[in-house]
Amino acid sequence: MSVATVHAFAAPAPKAPLEHTTIPRRALGEHDVLIEIRYAGICHSDIHQIREDWGEAIFPMVPGHEIAGVITEVGSGVTRHAVGDRAGVGCFVDSCRDCDNCRAGLEQYCTGSGMLMTYNATGSDGEPTYGGYSTHIVVDENYSVRIPEGITLDEAAPLLCAGITLYSPLAHWKTGPGTRVAIVGMGGLGHMGVKIAHAMGAEVTVLSQSLRKQEDGLRFGAAHFHATGDPATFERLAGSFDLIVNTVSANLDMDAYLGLLRTGGTLVNVGAPENPVPVNMFSLMFGRKHLAGSAIGGIRETQEMLDFCALHGIGADIEVISADGINDAYERVVAGDVRYRFVIDTSTLAAAATP
Q1: Contact in structure between 58 and 120 (CB atoms under 8 Å)
Q2: What region holds the Enoyl reductase (ER) domain (predicted)?
Q3: pLDDT for 146 beyond 90
Q4: Which long-range contacts (CB under 8 A, 24 or more apart) does 251-254 make?
Q5: Is 247 helix (H, G, I), strand (E, B) or coil?
Q6: pLDDT, tens digit, for every residue of 187-241?
Q7: Do the beta carbons of residue 41 and residue 342 sit within 8 Å?
Q8: Is the pLDDT confidence value at 355 over 60?
């Protein structure tokens, strides 16, 4: 391997600002590829994990699981990729490979060792995993995907989390012509849901707190845009939707949203609120409705998503930043001041090193 220590940005301790550092990358194994990272998306989950909102974490932490770049070296046994290929890495970099879910291409639901997260995890070698806020990453070829030429690398990076997180439930619940789909929230996740559901042929409605992003929603492909801050919205739209995808992490009134479903409809959650959410069982029983959850997607489905997005000209709406803007970007994400995903130009990582 030609790269052993690489530039990165890391949080040295919980809630600490990110700063320049260097990290080791493992030697290239037989089935590994070395990816020169060009762009890395900033996901809100990066912030949650640095702040230990989801439990004790591993520090120093190099976040980033929306990774897009170019393969510069391959192991002797690699068959899926070649030097020069555009490649991406998402939320996990390994799994047991042998459980029923892994064999079915549902590695994100691995019941063996569990999926190995791209960062804030410990690998089988006992070493911590470091994510995409870095210049290079070494990953097993089976856990990287090909980025088609129809998407620019900067707009492709957020697809590795935000894109697949929305594509997976939309595909699983058979979104297509004749279906009526509502996307709750239009942030980094939600704006991808609008674009993908529209490309699948659905009639798409955005349900957002206000009409502030209405113009964007219609531009992305929504046919309708409603403010959930207006109680009359829930009366007007009662029984309207086949599928509702909730992208927000706040505690919503699930009963109110279940009331928007048609008979047999599904409300699927991809956002993760910190506290339990109460549900009145009658909201499910009357109308044979379903309350579900979904988490990212497997490698096969992630590739399918990327190919679909390339075919339909779909990329994330992004704001590209340099490494020295990461901490400010975090504050803006928390404040909801981004349309709709920050993406780090990782070529700026080295320049951000302290002189």
Answers
A1: yes
A2: 16-344
A3: yes
A4: 251/275, 251/277, 252/184, 252/277, 254/278, 254/279, 254/283, 254/291
A5: coil
A6: 999 999 999 999 999 999 999 999 999 999 999 999 999 999 999 999 999 999 9
A7: yes
A8: no
Tokens representing residue 146 in the block? 């090909």
Q: What is the DSSP letter of 28?
A: P
Are 108 and 115 contacting, i.e. CB atoms less than 8 angstroms apart? yes
Q: Report pLDDT digits (tens) over 240-299.
A: 999 999 999 889 999 999 999 999 999 999 998 878 899 999 999 999 999 999 999 999
DSSP 210-230: SSTTHHHHHHHT-SEEEETTS
Which one, of 36, 34, 33, 57, lies nearest residue 47 by Cα? 57
**What are the tokens at 155?**
């707009």
Tokens found for residue 119: 């960062």
pLDDT digits (tens, 9 = 90+) for 298-312: 999 999 999 999 999
Written as one string, the DSSP assignment of 124-192 is TTSPBP--SSBSEEEEEGGG-EE--TTS-HHHHGGGGTHHHHHHHHHHHTT--TT-EEEEE--SHHHHH
- Assigned token pair, 210: 């206000």
Domains, the chain, ordered by start:
5-161+297-352 (3.90.180.10), 166-293 (3.40.50.720)
**Cis omega (within 30 of 0) on the bond before 257?**
no
* CB distance 261 to 289 below 8 Å: yes
